[in-house]
Amino acid sequence: MYVKFWGVRGSIPTPGPKTVRYGGNTSCIEIRLDSGQLLIIDAGSGIRELGNWLLANDQKKGPLKTDIFLTHTHWDHIHGYPFFTPTYIKGNEFRIHGPVNYAGKLEKIFSAQMDYTYYPVKLEDAGAKVSFNELKEGTIYVGGAKVTTCYLNHPILCLGYRIEADDCVVCTVYDHEPYVNIFSTDGRIDSDEAREAQEAVDMANAKILRHIENADLVVYDAQYHSKEELDSHRGWGHSSIEEALANSVAARVKRLAVFHHDPTRSDEALDALHLALRERVQREGLNLLTFPAKEGLAVPLKAGPPRG
Ligand SMILES: [Zn+2]
Ligand SMILES: [Zn+2]
Fold first, then answer.
1. C-alpha span between 148 and 164 (Å, rounded)
2. Prior bond of 125 cis (ω within 30°)
3. Which ligand is the nearest neighbour of the Cα of 74?
4. Pairing of strands 255-259, 289-292
5. Structural domains for the chain
6. Is pTM, for the whole model, over 0.85?
7. Tens digits of per-residue pLDDT, 157-199?
């Protein structure tokens, strides 16, 4: 199996000379099983280039039949789909999985971006057969992979995925903010409400650890770098590099790809953050490999200890 990043940026595409090395496209991840089966996670603007690559490669072997897993329907996770050229080819079939949303059906929310108000072609007129599957927490089996979902902490329902295939485990944890106790002031637990809330918070955070336990690769939300930066953006639904590292170590993850880079981060700023992260991992003798997700980076996975 390999995992390839086609879009790694959070919130909004950020083209330009300051982001050219890590890439400015929003979330899209290719998971390619040893059988050749393709799974796609998210349809941010990175899916456009993935679509072009598929046209030049997979499409030549016959119609594409692929599952696309949406973490949620915020724009940066769906807005590339109208530019995903394989959806304009008759015979192709895409099954789009995503979380139940109490604002309406997944199909309606997803296809609204291809209403004439916003876009000249309707989804149902595009050519390919597109179907939808609303997910809650649970497990489904797709294309030779076991896919387990976990609710994350975000302003709308958002899913983390745990994909098991070819004796490897790949997990996603974005867009996600660590749960905090809103009844506690300055970390003090000095009321019954605060004690009860702390139990719930501890359980919810422990669930995230179980979701990524022993994974070969975790793609983790690292929009912010430190607790201070995260604290100044509480409620926005994102994590920090520190949080991603702490949880990956606690869950005995083998490789950590920090992901969903803040749109304001330049290549130089990301270089500095990731150098500091790598130095910390070495200094503390932590047993995992960390790297920044980067557009075009393909990560071959084999079960076992991290390499390189
Ligand atoms: Zn996002
Ligand atoms: Zn979001």
1. 8
2. no
3. 2
4. parallel
5. 2-300 (3.60.15.10)
6. yes
7. 999 999 999 999 999 999 999 998 888 877 788 888 889 999 9
Tens of pLDDT, residues 225-257: 888 888 889 889 999 999 999 999 999 999 999
What per-residue string of b and e applies to 90-111 under the rule 16 or more CB within 10 Å gives b? eebebbbbbbebeeeebbebbb
- For residue 72, how far is its CA from the centre of ligand 2 (angstroms)? 7
Distance 155 CA to ligand 2 centre (A): 7
